[in-house]
Design brief:
Layout (H helix, E strand, L loop, with lengths): L1 H23 L3 H8 L5 H19 L4 H22 L2 H25 L8
Amino acid sequence: MKILINVILAILVFLAVLAGITKIMLMQQDVELFGKYGFTNSILIAYGVVQLFGGILLVLPKTRIAGAILVAISFLISAVVLAMEGNVPVTIVTLVCVLLLGFIIQQSLIRAAPPPTETQ
């Protein structure tokens, strides 16, 4: 199970960092897509920084939950934009990533919980 969690985590980190970098670099596809829905270049760069920062936070166990929350919110925003654009397949993949981020949060909370103590 731990290997599966690490593989999922690696994929999510990769996707978050890559998505953040493409927005920071103002890749033409992102500028056109998000620009249709009111994202200026400055907002798109800030949005990319949040995705990149969230992806970096996902790597470290102590900041994993915060990173997962940031990335999940940013992916939900992307899913809404993609759905409005009518890109159903990519919207579904993005929502699956959000569910996987929820799984990572759940597993992180389980690992962070103190072991049960015996009471008499």
